[in-house]
Specification:
- It is a single chain.
- By secondary structure, the protein is mainly β.
- Helices cover 0% and strands 39% of the residues.
- The chain has one domain: SH3 type barrels (Roll), CATH 2.30.30.
- The chain contains no helices and five strands.
- The protein has a five-stranded antiparallel β-sheet, with no helix packed on it.
- The chain is globular and about 35 Å long.
Length: 75
């Protein structure tokens, strides 16, 4: 399993078959699910730049940019 991501990590969408318009967009993680068991990977709620709604992605659909945004950027 790929490394987990943290809140406010900046990510780029690298795979999005259900939402091809999201491919290549950048945003930040504002939510992380808490799976019921260790065998299930968390899902990430991402606010893409320019959007006003969160979109849920699996870890393998996201690539970290290495940047970390702050809470104040959003709230």
């Amino acid at each position: 399993m790929e490394d987990a991501l943290e809140f406010y990590a900046e990510v780029r969408v690298v795979d999005s078959p259900d939402r091809p318009e999201s491919l290549g967009k950048v945003g930040a993680i504002l939510g992380i699910s808490e799976p019921a068991d260790d065998g299930t990977a968390p899902a990430y709620a991402v606010l893409l730049d320019g959007d006003d709604a969160l979109i849920q992605f699996r870890r393998e659909q996201l690539e970290p940019t290495g940047q970390l945004r702050t809470r104040e950027d959003y709230y």
